[in-house]
Amino acid sequence: MSSTPTLIRTGKTISRVVSTLKEQILDGRLAPGQRLIANDLLEELGVSRGSLREAFRQLDAERLINLTPNKGAIVRKLNIAEVNKLFEIRIALEGFAARLAAEKIDLKDNRKLFIDVLERGRRHQHNPIFSEFVIDNRDFHQAIVNICENDELGKLIDKYQLPVFMLQLRQVMSKEQIIKNALSEHEEIASAILSSSPEAAYEAMKKHLLHSSQLILGSL
Question: Are residues 178 and 103 both part of a single domain?
Answer without folding.
Answer: yes
